[in-house]
Amino acid sequence: MGLKFEDVLIESLPYIRDFSESVMVIKIGGNAMMGPEAAANLMDEIVQDIVLLHFVGIKTIVVHGGGPEINEKMEKMGKTPKFIGGLRVTDDDTLEIATMVLVGNINTKMVSLINKYGGKGVGLNGVDANLIQAKKKKSQKVVVDGNEEDVDIGWVGETEIINPKILRMMIENGYIPVISPVAAEKKGHMLNINADTVAGDVAAALGAKKLIMMTDISGVLRDVKDKNSRISKIEVSEIDKMIEDEIITGGMIPKIRGAEVAVRSGVEGVHIINGSTPHSLLLELFTDIGVGTMIYKKEDEKEEE
Amino acid sequence: MGLKFEDVLIESLPYIRDFSESVMVIKIGGNAMMGPEAAANLMDEIVQDIVLLHFVGIKTIVVHGGGPEINEKMEKMGKTPKFIGGLRVTDDDTLEIATMVLVGNINTKMVSLINKYGGKGVGLNGVDANLIQAKKKKSQKVVVDGNEEDVDIGWVGETEIINPKILRMMIENGYIPVISPVAAEKKGHMLNINADTVAGDVAAALGAKKLIMMTDISGVLRDVKDKNSRISKIEVSEIDKMIEDEIITGGMIPKIRGAEVAVRSGVEGVHIINGSTPHSLLLELFTDIGVGTMIYKKEDEKEEE
Amino acid sequence: MGLKFEDVLIESLPYIRDFSESVMVIKIGGNAMMGPEAAANLMDEIVQDIVLLHFVGIKTIVVHGGGPEINEKMEKMGKTPKFIGGLRVTDDDTLEIATMVLVGNINTKMVSLINKYGGKGVGLNGVDANLIQAKKKKSQKVVVDGNEEDVDIGWVGETEIINPKILRMMIENGYIPVISPVAAEKKGHMLNINADTVAGDVAAALGAKKLIMMTDISGVLRDVKDKNSRISKIEVSEIDKMIEDEIITGGMIPKIRGAEVAVRSGVEGVHIINGSTPHSLLLELFTDIGVGTMIYKKEDEKEEE
Amino acid sequence: MGLKFEDVLIESLPYIRDFSESVMVIKIGGNAMMGPEAAANLMDEIVQDIVLLHFVGIKTIVVHGGGPEINEKMEKMGKTPKFIGGLRVTDDDTLEIATMVLVGNINTKMVSLINKYGGKGVGLNGVDANLIQAKKKKSQKVVVDGNEEDVDIGWVGETEIINPKILRMMIENGYIPVISPVAAEKKGHMLNINADTVAGDVAAALGAKKLIMMTDISGVLRDVKDKNSRISKIEVSEIDKMIEDEIITGGMIPKIRGAEVAVRSGVEGVHIINGSTPHSLLLELFTDIGVGTMIYKKEDEKEEE
Amino acid sequence: MGLKFEDVLIESLPYIRDFSESVMVIKIGGNAMMGPEAAANLMDEIVQDIVLLHFVGIKTIVVHGGGPEINEKMEKMGKTPKFIGGLRVTDDDTLEIATMVLVGNINTKMVSLINKYGGKGVGLNGVDANLIQAKKKKSQKVVVDGNEEDVDIGWVGETEIINPKILRMMIENGYIPVISPVAAEKKGHMLNINADTVAGDVAAALGAKKLIMMTDISGVLRDVKDKNSRISKIEVSEIDKMIEDEIITGGMIPKIRGAEVAVRSGVEGVHIINGSTPHSLLLELFTDIGVGTMIYKKEDEKEEE
Amino acid sequence: MGLKFEDVLIESLPYIRDFSESVMVIKIGGNAMMGPEAAANLMDEIVQDIVLLHFVGIKTIVVHGGGPEINEKMEKMGKTPKFIGGLRVTDDDTLEIATMVLVGNINTKMVSLINKYGGKGVGLNGVDANLIQAKKKKSQKVVVDGNEEDVDIGWVGETEIINPKILRMMIENGYIPVISPVAAEKKGHMLNINADTVAGDVAAALGAKKLIMMTDISGVLRDVKDKNSRISKIEVSEIDKMIEDEIITGGMIPKIRGAEVAVRSGVEGVHIINGSTPHSLLLELFTDIGVGTMIYKKEDEKEEE
Questions:
Q1: Cα–Cα distance between A271 and A283 in angstroms, integer?
Q2: Which parts of D are annotated binding residues for substrate?
Q3: What is the 3-state secondary structure (H, E, C) of chain A?
Q4: pLDDT tens digits for chain C (305 residues)?
């Protein structure tokens, strides 16, 4: 294996060089990584990859979700998780459980793992230093018995303002911030917010080079049935047509739309990769072929604006 | 009241001057402040006082406990809290609940309150940036059926190393760190540790000017039955005699011993005050009379060492 | 008094928070404060208030006058003070005496007082580091025997350029600059300048948040005979009308005009207060009611320009 | 003159190089420079030389005296200057006059002159930023009618503590501090102190490379009657013998003793030069021959200590 | 000589003051300075002058040529130097020799001389930190046997991009950079470039106050035969007419055109002086009369642009 | 290869982590790398590896030799290289050629290569900023016709003082310094010095973590005839015995002795590796097995001193 060792390092040199000192936001979430059926050491491997990014000079910020673990804990406490339009209906109890699971359990474990592999993680959530100021989401239109109704989904928020100063201070000082998707609204009430959105907003606010969405699927497939039909790059102007043509469908639509927003806000590339593929993070970033789908924006179009 | 307004400000001037730029660690905890029977707006008032300290130039660090709330949550989940020698017996479930309550619930709420009153709070726990490295406590000797037995009290830790760098970075940049008393041991397993000890260790590591222990009692009383017999200052060398004479007794002994350690490590004064007395923090710090008991060390003795 | 103590501190918190790190210029002058009939400890109290402002995080700059003391000294030396149009006729001897009194006597005493109360004062005048470059004022029109004549009032100057760099260096390093109103013109000849103007120019050059003019009167009264008719706020656009309506009259006109200039140059508020009212400085800044008159500019008007 | 121009610059290069970035304290005083009989443009020339030192990279601090001008002003006001043992007897009036003359007149003029020649002077006295903390001198033994008596000489002080921080801030930022020899004692009362002593104390506190005493005489002469018998260098260990041998006599003794103290505190060389010799400052510093007497300490002796 | 010594220093004060902290680029080259017939100690004297500039606060950058020495070395190695249109035809061998002579011989000697006189020189060439990125010059039109032909002159380059960051780092840290006129093109091949051009480009990139071209001639003469007809200042708008009128002719034309470019790019003045005149650098910079020709641009014209 | 790619990166993580921010000095030299018979792209590969070290956070300093190229150039110019005791006899011509080849040719090419692969190289030699102050070596004892004679070997020097300040400035600012082994003695005469020694001296002066000697041989072999008998680690105290036992012999002795000096001066490890083995630098640093011999010092022994 000797000979190959150095070839790999040398092959990754141009990428390492290009990414040096740049900011990357990494979203971790979903059943494949955090659910009860996730592979035993998967999270260990992902964190190792993240720490490696840190040591080759990338300023890394982690945003995590935690849906599966919140559900699990709720059920233990005799509550049934409820969703409307993909959003968790969040009453007082649910909010308290979600916050405790996200901030007190998942975040702390992830920081601990980062430390174990030699990084210096620091847990944050939207409340810390007013990192995220949110507002309560409006009622959602739901069809009930054939009639559209307005339903209040409770303590679910959306980002109003990002104050990235504390993130800058941390990445400049060599820390790896790990962000839980909870925030407070103006009067101080806690809100549960979508982790994908938080990741996109943070990436945009910092002018990150890349946002990597580690999900349960391997990017966009031209033919859902053909695992080899993965589309490795999508230019933002193609998105509308691809949705119309039903290449992008279902749960992938909001992810791609979020990626579009981030790219239009200045993030150089948003990568959607399968977190359960071993070391997908390194393969996507440090090889030409990649393992997921990158959403980007053509240079000339950028300059036109 | 007009006239009095300015007198108060002017009276506090020498204290404000003396405390300017100094570091103070404030421990908040206990039933009176955090228990179900605590006065409605008490925590709001305490946080307002803390933010005021910040604005008059004091570098403030908060350490919180959470025993009453952990008990409450455990009972909700059908578990009975169990203590040996004052220490919580901490099995896996208890550890998970304690961590979620401390880090995910109490800490986040406290940070949110600090922000509400104009400070910039940041939640931390011992895992963040390896702030506290702990080790599992040895088994405790317990008398069971008249026999002394060694009982493993589970995931309870004690501080090994404090890495105060992240605290320094935060207070230098105008943030108010809020610390939960959980930490990891070397291999990464989480441990629950005593908040009083954490507060003392942090104060010692930073060379804080003051450590203020906000408790359920108004300092040391010469005669427990006489509320007016409060001793306002105790020199560390007097402690042994006072314990022998049974002036300091029961649960006050470990608090005073902790204070002694902090003072001998360089903290200028440790103040034990009653957190449920309105604005006891300001009264103790900014008036001559004070409302609690201060443990200190004579100057000349310091220089001898 | 115990209970009230903390209420006062807490009431002032929003102001302390709002003023934290902001720059304020305080003009001290007039018979009530500096004349022979001034109350015995008045200057001590004023300086205590100023030092308190410093310790609650306000970057404080003092500008002092000294008319009464110059007159007193001149008379001791057998010279009769002479004024034309409110300006001191300043021949060579008068200039020398004025400079010695302002720089060598009043300024030094004020710095010494600031130090006594725990601040770090530094005396300055317009010559230091070219802080103020002035030019000689033109001759004044005076009516003599019914004829208007041009009279040279001697070594009286007006500000040409402010070089605020040394002030910035000092306030950033925790010093309280105390400025005497003397300056040099281009060729180096000393000039006596009006302290009100110096205060306004310095406030404008630094973009101060507030300029506080401590005078002999309690702001603008709607009815001069009624002490309770004080107008607490005047928007700059109202000034012309108020002069026309003879609400603002006499010696108050130049003060208000000076305030107008400062506010139009970006100072957020100019406060005219009565320096002989005990602690008027604190009452005006830290209570809602205030004790003087504030000149300010409406936000929207600002943005229009 | 063309050819000579560049030779001079080149000849001074090794000195310029050696003095670059070093701190020098220059004491200006005495009848020849400041008295009524001083040459018309002498002070202009001296200040030009000082500004030149600044521009060739020397961090220059000026300390001035003012005896002749204080006497003059006192006489104008009908007071007779009085001295005991070379020290001015300083009652309340004398103190006020001395302070006004030194701080308000001489200092301001000197700063103005420095500015005129392109430097950035800033006037200071012992009170500014607590630069000099002094204490009142004890009574002096005086022989009156053949009996030795203790006489209180009034508000005359001697240095207790130098706080050189403000001087460092100023010279690091390109300013030339000009110091008047007045200070306050602990309780804030002003004191008049000896300018030679202030210069020596400041030089020692800053670890200055050189202290230059510009006086009325051209250093130490081996034979007082022979102007050509000047001694250009005196090693500190020779001083006792030279006083015993009456080579150093009269008013030169305290100057040489002061120089000895400064040199023993770490100042590399103290130069006593005649300020009324045109450009004596430059000639002493930038030529091998020099024009005065330098007191220094042998290297090896330094290392022994 | 005593009296004159200080006069010279004082006369140069306004220049020293004006040039303090400013950046100057000094081009050294030509037969008179570097050729075999150059006066024995000339280079020593020039370097001494440069170090003097450094010590009076000027940030000095040296650019050197080396034509005569390259020719000499080529001839030693049996190669005949060849020029087309004033440019050296540079084949592979010539490039290697030129680079070795410029970077390895002349530059190193010059740095060593700077150190000898107390400066801290650092040798650089266009390759270091990508200081100069060049491109190969196009073929030159040459008349051969009456026909114009395109001739490739080999590895001769012209500046594309200057990266002055390393120069700024060095002059801010007290070093004197010495630049050899070689650079690499994009793919890394070395190129020989014209030293006059490099000097002009560097001066423009740094916004230098002055560019001093030390050449073999004493500036522009109104009448070539009359050494006393030197024109001391030329405003850029006069250049066209002076070339038309044949006052500026021959090899002086490209030098003046280069100066014009530098001045139009923001350099305050370009001075063409005779390097073989002893201390011409000091005489030109520090006396009113000067010894060369300065090209400058009128203020008002500057503002019009 | 996919799977292996990420394994390699992950395997190197602990090394990357451990070396992050540390200083390494890399010596390149010898026939295998720089001689005419060196493999075509070898130097490109070595430089790529060095740039990779830079991008994974190692502060890299290169020292190069150049014996083979100096010999080649001398022979071209008709001079015969001559050695005594392994040292090049260096007359005036040889010194000039050596300097030109090292500084003007090899160094410039190496810097250009570093730039080509994305680093920012800067060429230096001992003269730059007085990096190395050397002194001429004493005559060498040589046996001529059976008699020991003292032979002056000319302009060969040895290090007296290292001034590493400029190296620190460069590595802190992201540059890769490349050092040629020439220096000047006190009076400014150039000297040729041994590159191995320079590398060791620089590593010691900077307290480098590692010094890597890239040579023509693969470290120390227990049995010279058996390539597989390489000794991977030698503790400094074993060296004497290994020389005695003739395990270390011939030209390896001075290399090992140099390594010993570096290690005893605080360098953590000196690695002797074969530069002609592809990517030996990466294999030695980032794999457990390594490819050369490391000289180190036991921890406890270190603390004893």
A1: 12
A2: 66-67, 88, 192
A3: CHHHHHHHHHHHHHHHHHHCCCEEEEEECCHHHHCCCCCCCHHHHHHHHHHHHHHCCCEEEEEECCHHHHHHHHHHCCCCCCEECCEECECHHHHHHHHHHHHHHHHHHHHHHHHHCCCCEEEEECCHHHCEEEEECCCEEEEECCEEEEECCECEEEEEEECCHHHHHHHHCCCEEEEECEEEECCCCEEEECHHHHHHHHHHHHCCCEEEEEECCCCCECCCCCHHHECCEEEHHHHHHHHHCCCCCCCHHHHHHHHHHHHHCCCCEEEEEECCCCCHHHHHHHCCCCCCEEEECCHHHHHHC
A4: 333 556 666 777 788 888 988 999 999 987 777 777 777 789 998 999 999 999 988 999 999 999 889 999 999 888 999 988 778 999 999 999 999 999 999 999 999 999 999 999 999 999 999 999 999 998 888 777 888 888 888 999 999 999 999 999 999 999 999 999 999 998 889 999 999 999 999 999 999 999 999 988 888 888 878 878 899 999 999 999 999 999 998 878 888 988 999 999 999 999 999 998 888 898 889 877 778 999 999 975 444 43
Determine whether the annotation assigns residue A269 to a binding site: no
- Asked if chain F contacts chain C via 3 or more Cβ pairs within 8 Å, the reply is no
CA distance E29 to chain F (A): 19
| B58: CB partners within 8 A, 6+ apart | B19, B20, B21, B22, B23, B24
Residue of D1, D8, D15 to mutate for E, most E C-beta atoms under 10 A = D8
For the structural domain made of F22-304, what CATH number should be given? 3.40.1160.10
Nearest CA in chain C to D102: C104
| Alpha-carbon span A248 to A242, nearest angstrom | 6
How close, in Å, is residue E248 to chain D by CA atoms? 27
- Say whether F222 counts as a known binding-site residue: no
**CATH code for the domain defined by D9-304:** 3.40.1160.10
Task: Say yes or no for a CB contact (<8 Å) between A175 and B166.
Answer: yes
Domain boundaries, chain A: 2-304
- Give the pair of three-digit tokens for residue B9: 């400000």
How many beta-carbon contacts under 8 Å exist across A and F? 98
Q: Which fold has domain C15-304?
A: Carbamate kinase (3.40.1160)
d(CA B202, CA B266): 12
User: What span, in angstroms and rounded, lies between the C-alpha atoms of D136 and C122?
Assistant: 22
A-interface mutation test, from F3, F4, F10, most A Cβ less than 10 A away: F10
Architecture of domain E2-304: 3-Layer(aba) Sandwich (3.40)
CATH superfamily of domain region B14-304: Acetylglutamate kinase-like (3.40.1160.10)
Q: Which residues pair with D234 in a beta bridge?
A: D295
Rounded distance between C-alpha atoms, residue D110 and residue D123, angstroms: 8
Which residues, other chains included, contact E274 with Cβ-Cβ below 8 Å and sequence gap of 6+? E32, E214, E215, E216, E217, E218, E219, E280, E291, E292
Question: Rounded to 5 degrees, what angle do the CA atoms D6, D11, D16 make?
Answer: 105
- C-alpha E32/C-alpha E39 separation (Å) is 8
C76–D122 C-beta distance less than 8 A: no
Site of tokens 């104050």: A163
Write down the pTM of the prediction. Answer: 0.82
Which of D10, D49, D57 is facing E48, going by the closest CB pair?
D10
- Are A123 and B123 inside 8 Å of each other by CB? yes
Tell me the pLDDT tens digit for each residue of F244-294. Answer: 999 998 878 888 988 998 999 999 999 999 998 888 898 889 877 778 999
**How far apart, in Å, are the Cα atoms of E13 and each of D9, D51, E56, F138?**
11, 8, 10, 49
Contacts of A283 in chain F (CB under 8 A): 2, 5-6
Instruction: Determine E/C contact with 3+ CB pairs under 8 A as the test.
Output: no
